Amino acid sequence: MIRILIINILLFGFEIANAQNSSVYTRFGIGDLEYGYSSRMLGIGDLGIAELDPDHILVSNPASWSSLNRTRIELGLGYKGVLIADNNKSAFTSEVEFTGLTFGIPVSRDYGIGLVAGLVPYSNLSYKVKTKIAATDEIPSYSNTYEGKGGLSKLFIGSSVQLPLNFLFGVTADYYFGNQNYSLTREFENTTDFVDAVFENSHRYTGGGFSLGLITPNLAKDFGINLLSDLRLGFSYNFVSDLNTDTFYTSTSNYLVDTTSSGTTKLQIPERFNGGISFGITDEYNFNIDYMYQQFSKFKFNDAANSNLRDANKFSAAFEYKPRRAVGQTTWEQIVWRVGLSYEQTQYKFNGNGINQFSTFAGLSYPLGIDNTIDIGLEYSNRGTTENNLLNEQAIKVYLGLSFGELWFLRYDK
């Protein structure tokens, strides 16, 4: 199954789509941050820093790959619908997009060596706003449409290993790339004396980085905590080098396309710190509490800071019920259930008002035979406020993912 999927991916490929699915908040910085890519990760709040799951590939901490017990490929699709409102009106936008792809191999289970590669999103820019300007004695009425789309993606390859004292360590080499396009479309009404035009500012990014991760051994066993079957702490660190940025400014009308200017500069994305705790009560009930911090007050483009950005924080807590496998179980008895909530201090601020987000999420994994699942993740979030001329966003995410596992490289005793 996995071999067939890999061949199809190489032949046909995937495109990560970008369309309008958020408000003008995403105009600032690099847009909305993406922490996870899969239905499984959405179901536990997109973090899971101390989580060990042999049946899924988690990208938040490469140390977790030490638990892989099958060669595994995962991919997903996501739907996002957003109701955006101010004091006067509201609008609903939505899109469906490919969310990511990962492939992992358990090289050595004895030494906790797992090898994983993947393509996942890092940020998303997506908005569209239209305003109408009344006519004057000199200029007829016209409309301005402001639109932004694009984002950053991360291509990575990494590995994990078990250290002395049963600590787990992981590292990745990352390559970042993407485009952000900002446009203004001006359309005049009921006149031929003025020419419609489109003004576009495009940024193209490329650069490298790395991630590090650490997960402790089972502290419940080490400290004799009989109430818990498993207790671990996890930490991860993500560094992005200064990204090379090509910029293009163009204007388009009925008569010509003109590149008015172009150049190169640097984009500086602050480092990200993650921490978490995972604990289990028997092998069936697992809890995760996670924290993310990224100092966006230090974000710079062309060596200039942005006054509409602040430090970002995210807290999440999740519960997962994973039934023990037993002979004779029905399909219903094998379903894995997840639920949780999170609070996020986003990186956006306007006129001294910070934009915060509250989210609830849930998910499940439905078995498709041994070691294969179809995963569903749901999230409802509420961000911002209509006070002080700001915007409120109520969003629904629905992620659908496939996870396929197979035994490769079996070793037989002679």
Descriptive notes:
- The chain has 414 residues and is mainly β.
- It has one domain: Beta Barrel (Porin), CATH 2.40.160.
- Helices cover 5% and strands 58% of the residues.
- The chain is built from 3 helices and 18 strands.
- Strands 2-3-4-5-6-7-8-11-12-14-15-16-17-18 form a 14-stranded antiparallel β-barrel.
- The longest helix is centred in the N-terminal third of the chain and has 11 residues.
- The two termini are 28 Å apart.
Summarize this structure briefly.
By secondary structure, the chain is mainly β.
Strand order of the largest sheet: 2-3-4-5-6-7-8-11-12-14-15-16-17-18
**Could you give a short account of the major beta sheet?**
14 strands, antiparallel, barrel
pLDDT < 50 runs, ≥5 residues: 2-19
N-C termini distance: 28 Å
How many helices? The count is 3
Indicate the overall shape: elongated
N-to-C SSE string, H for helix and E for strand: HEHEEEEEEHEEEEEEEEEEE
CATH topology: Porin
Which helices and strands occur, and which strands form pairs?
Elements: H1 2-12, E1 32-33, H2 39-43, E2 71-85, E3 90-108, E4 113-133, E5 142-162, E6 168-188, E7 197-215, H3 219-222, E8 230-240, E9 243-253, E10 257-268, E11 272-281, E12 285-294, E13 300-301, E14 312-321, E15 336-350, E16 353-367, E17 373-384, E18 392-406
Antiparallel strand pairs: 1-4, 2-3, 2-18, 3-4, 4-5, 5-6, 6-7, 7-8, 7-9, 8-11, 9-10, 10-13, 11-12, 12-14, 14-15, 15-16, 16-17, 17-18
